Amino acid sequence: MVLIGFLIPQSLRAGFTGIGVGAAYQGLRPVIEFMTFNFSMQAIDHIINSAAKSNYMSAGQINVPIVFRGPNGAAAGVGAQHSQCYAAWFAHVPGLKVLAPYSSEDARGLLKAAIRDPDPVVFLENELLYGESFPVSDEVLDSSFALPIGKAKIEREGKDVTITAFSKMVGYALQAAEILSKEGISAEVINLRSIRPLDRAAINASVRKTNRLVTLEEGFPQHGVGAEICMSVVEESFEYLDAPIERIAGADVPMPYAANLERLAVPQIEDIVRAARRACYRALPMTATA
Ligand SMILES: *[C@@H]1O[C@H](CO)[C@@H](O)[C@H](O)[C@H]1NC(C)=O
Ligand SMILES: *[C@@H]1O[C@H](CO)[C@@H](O)[C@H](O)[C@H]1NC(C)=O
């Protein structure tokens, strides 16, 4: 069953999300499509209270195998109410799984896994990635292909600094890694794929290898995905860190409408390069923020 939110007035979003959750209680596997995740705010009561908590509150008697999907993240020139990343919002909630594909392989493998999963999954796509092409292997095209939930992918191996990213920011991290390689810094790029559950083991293993970490996300910094990753590394591998962890996130403001301010409010490739240099002590303190 697929319920499509495209061009439906905002007030109906709570309604069709509620219908979807009810259908999932009855054993269907609905896919709720929000035209964008901006509008999921109309329906957040159903996502959190009706979908995420029911398995626990029914002592395991009710499963809610539902997928909420749609474009998430900062777009271009749409202002504060239409440009934000909801990864940390939903990843805060026990009972939800939160996935964020970067490539075509991720989108295919993770969406199939989400639909098959017995629990509610928030599936955060990125509108600006819809227009990008990615190479796909025969394995990915095979009808049996699916990806595991909760496993990150090492998109690029490196030995000097780990960069964690998800969704569109994986592409930025890969471009930054290319620039860094010309300076002799070998960056390892982790595509998180799954925000909740988070692949703490993959992050842990990478940081134990590189001894440095830069976290990257588009969302607001406070209580964000980077904050959680930082704490996880402090708990698991603090003594392996050779430099302070660097966090790159969106600016802590509602998204500006003016294009010049908007650019300043979202992470740019040069921000990642500078943070990685700082982590590797390749930047002078005076120029660290220049
Ligand atoms: C919000 O809506 C705009 C306009 O449709 C879209 O470009 C953007 O991706 C959306 N962002 C989120 C977080 O839903
Ligand atoms: C981190 O790595 C160490 C050593 O391999 C291991 O003991 C620990 O369980 C790991 N932590 C996680 C969360 O994987």
UniProtKB/TrEMBL annotation:
<dbReference type="Pfam" id="PF02780">
    <property type="entry name" value="Transketolase_C"/>
</dbReference>
<protein>
    <recommendedName>
        <fullName>Pyruvate dehydrogenase E1 component subunit beta</fullName>
        <ecNumber>1.2.4.1</ecNumber>
    </recommendedName>
</protein>
<feature type="domain" description="Transketolase-like pyrimidine-binding">
    <location>
        <begin position="1"/>
        <end position="132"/>
    </location>
</feature>
<dbReference type="InterPro" id="IPR029061">
    <property type="entry name" value="THDP-binding"/>
</dbReference>
<keyword id="KW-0560">Oxidoreductase</keyword>
<keyword id="KW-0786">Thiamine pyrophosphate</keyword>
<dbReference type="Pfam" id="PF02779">
    <property type="entry name" value="Transket_pyr"/>
</dbReference>
<dbReference type="GO" id="GO:0004739">
    <property type="term" value="F:pyruvate dehydrogenase (acetyl-transferring) activity"/>
</dbReference>
<comment type="function">
    <text>The pyruvate dehydrogenase complex catalyzes the overall conversion of pyruvate to acetyl-CoA and CO2.</text>
</comment>
<dbReference type="InterPro" id="IPR027110">
    <property type="entry name" value="PDHB_mito-type"/>
</dbReference>
<dbReference type="InterPro" id="IPR005475">
    <property type="entry name" value="Transketolase-like_Pyr-bd"/>
</dbReference>
<dbReference type="GO" id="GO:0006086">
    <property type="term" value="P:pyruvate decarboxylation to acetyl-CoA"/>
</dbReference>
<keyword id="KW-0670">Pyruvate</keyword>
<dbReference type="InterPro" id="IPR009014">
    <property type="entry name" value="Transketo_C/PFOR_II"/>
</dbReference>
<dbReference type="InterPro" id="IPR033248">
    <property type="entry name" value="Transketolase_C"/>
</dbReference>
